[in-house]
Amino acid sequence: MRGAGRARSAGTGALCVLAASVLWGTTGTAATFAPDVGPLAIGAVAMGLGGLLQALAAARPTARDASRLRARRGTVLLGAASVAVYPLAFYSSMRLAGVAVGTVVSIGTAPLASALIERVVDRRRLTRRWMLAALLGLSGTVLLCVAEAAHASGGAGRRSVAAMLLGVGLGLVAAATYALYSWAAHRLITGGIPSRAAMGAVFGIGGLLLVPVLLATGAPLVASWSNAAVGVYMALVPMFAGYVLFGWGLAHVPASTATTLSLLEPAVAAVLAVLVVGERLPVAGWSGIALVVMCLAVLTAPTGARPLVRGEPAHPGDAPAPARARTTGV
Question: With 50 as the cut, is the pLDDT of residue 305 above it?
Answer without folding.
Answer: no
